[in-house]
Amino acid sequence: MRLLVAALASELVAFPDDLPGFDRLVTGPGKLQATYALTRALDATAYDEVVVVGTAGAIDARLDADVYEISAALQHDVTDIDGIVGQHVSLPPRVELEAEGVTIATGDHFVDDAEAVAVIRPLGAGLVDMETYAYIWVAQRFGVPIRVLKAVSDRAQDGAITDWHAAVTACSHQLRNRIRADYDV
């Protein structure tokens, strides 16, 4: 059995309530809610794989409005005791997956301005979201394989929240098509 995870129910609107071979988990937005909900789920049930779907802002202009496999995540909203952005005091700077794909920068705020993007881009990420680092970190603590698929909903620039609201349903359909193709469900 696999666990299908999304931060928001709106990211799953294109998915049937019952997807064969998958349980479903909506965690709520942000790293704390993602950590709490996924920890509870993995503590309660042994899953063969966690499959995360959701939206992300593109901060790399080369990334089109498509679905991307995530290969690594970092936190863009932490600073260590030496003032280094992206470095946490006790967590690894990056969590890696075996998949080929894009690096995502996770933070607890919705990125929607050019100044924030200018700070995040040098960290080496192509996408931004609010949960992926937490999902990967938790799944790895439990030793459960995890796969993360993100659909680009916006450009993380001024007005991105308006773009996200307009795009989330289309992104859900893109993600549903990818899950159908990859898992035959």
General description of the model:
There is one protein chain. This protein has 185 residues and is an alpha/beta fold. The chain has four helices and eight strands. It has a five-stranded mixed β-barrel. Residues 26-178 form the Nucleoside phosphorylase domain. Pfam families: PNP_UDP_1 (PF01048). This is Nucleoside phosphorylase.
Radius of gyration: 15 Å
Low-confidence stretches: none
Q: Provide the β-strand percentage band.
A: 25-35%
Number of helices: 4
Series of secondary-structure elements, N-terminal to C-terminal: EEHEEEEHEHEH
Shape: globular
Specify the helix fraction band.
25-40%
Major sheet size, sense and barrel closure? 5 strands, mixed, barrel
In round numbers, the mean pLDDT is 93
Distance between the termini: 13 Å
Give the strand line-up of the largest sheet.
Answer: 3-7-6-4-8
Q: SS-based structural class?
A: alpha/beta
Kindly state the number of beta strands. 8
